[in-house]
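Bit of a strange request maybe. I'm writing a small parser for structure token strings and I need a real example to test against, not something I typed by hand. Could someone generate the tokens for this chain?
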Amino acid sequence: MEMLKNLMETITGMGATAILPLVIFILGLVFRMKPGAGIKSGITVGIGFIGLGLVVGLLNSSLQPAIEYYSKVRSGFTVADIGWPAVGADAWVAPFAALVIPVGIVLNLILVRLKLTKTLNVDIWNYMRFLVPGALAYFVFDSFIIGFSVAVALSIAALFIGDLIAPRWQKYYGLEGRTCTTMIHIGWTLPFAWVVNKIIDYIPGLNKLDVDLNRVQKRLGVFGEPA
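Reply from user aminoacidic:
Good idea to test on real output. This should exercise your parser:
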């Protein structure tokens, strides 16, 4: 296991801009893409990560003087929240990141083959939703095994939750044969919204109010446009 850990750390040490393009290229070959198209897809993802890194770096350098000032006076804001894109990029440098994806995909295929789940998760980018909690577990417990196990367990849990929400998801969005495996939405946002909707159903007056997004946009005119 120590040898495997060292191998994974060597691979992940190359950074997300090297790991994810490699994963995308390999997956492209698995799904019978032409090698040239697979390489192009991988490089495109890598360029995106480089751009993301540049933007985050610029943001940090711009905010650093304010952070240093408040750190000296020991009050105010001393932490910068740079949002999920940066966290997502950082997730790919977890020491087990390169191992979680192939293991997750293989287990997914086995579960589908055994008819234990109908969901096939092809959303590789959102594997970061499993890697972030796995990385937190790794740093808290200082254990490669625990971090890896948490990430893989979440990837499997997403499949079964995907099966559970599939009928409602397909009916609402009109997407036959589709579901969602993005853990932050199906594991937190969706249950929260469901509970809030149930509470609203028991509030007289409010439960009769029909708030439709299209109607709201019409009433607001140009200010209701998504742009």
